[in-house]
Amino acid sequence: MESEYTLYEQQTSRQLKRWEIRLHKLPNLVERASKSMQTGINNLIPDKVHTTITATVKGIIQTTLFGINYIPAQGPLQGLSLADRDAKAQELLALYKKIAAAEGAGTGAGGILLGLADFPILIGIKLKFLFELAHVYGYSTKDYRERLFILYVFQLAFSSHEKKPELLLTIKNWRSVADTFPPAEAYMDQVDWKQLQQEYRDTIDFRKMLQLVPGIGAVVGAWANYGLLEELGVAGMNCFRLRWLQDKAKPKKL
Fold this sequence. Notes:
By secondary structure, the protein is mainly alpha-helical. The chain has helices at 7-24, 29-44, 47-66, 82-108, 111-136, 144-157, 164-172, 174-178, 184-188, 193-210, 217-249. Helices cover 75% and strands 0% of the residues. Helix 1 (7-24) crosses helix 11 and helix 5 (111-136) crosses helix 6 (144-157). The longest helix has 33 residues, at 217-249. The chain is globular. Mean pLDDT is 77; it is low at 108-115 and 210-217. Pfam families: EcsC (PF12787).
């Protein structure tokens, strides 16, 4: 397949293979201990609290994925090379890291209440970034299946090591997977929202908890949000690069 690619695309393909290997690596001792502690904490949290948080996450993501406000005004970019798309994606990521850092600093400086408000705001920033990233790589978010792809990318970026291989497999086989989807509303009923919110919360917990500490909230909030957007950017760019290379090798049938 690589013989069909330019030199840049061949290099990218090899980078993606190394990224996939890293995703399949087993967590180290510290990561396993952290996950075990977070699981224990989750078990102590009353079901009513989990239900409330789950409903919040579900509401935010559903509103974002199936509203029209997040669809970029500019249509998907056409006719660009992968190198040009990657350059534009890096510019977009740099912008959103600054936006997230500024938001984290502002809410972190405002104490516990504003710190808690950062949770839904940050999800919105992340999803808005992914919407625009899709258009950079030539995929229109007017198609609900592209918005579901964004949901999988979001989960891949903020999920446990155990879940990443399964999510990556879905992303790698997206063309065939997307053909099996029911209507959008029916599909969303099949999402395990409790698991999604727990995986997401466990991934960001330590950094975001520090944001609530008086005196250091602003600094930590900026640092945490900047880093979380960086992680999302790496996952998002690699997922879209993977699809772009697959589509070049096997163009869609008209």
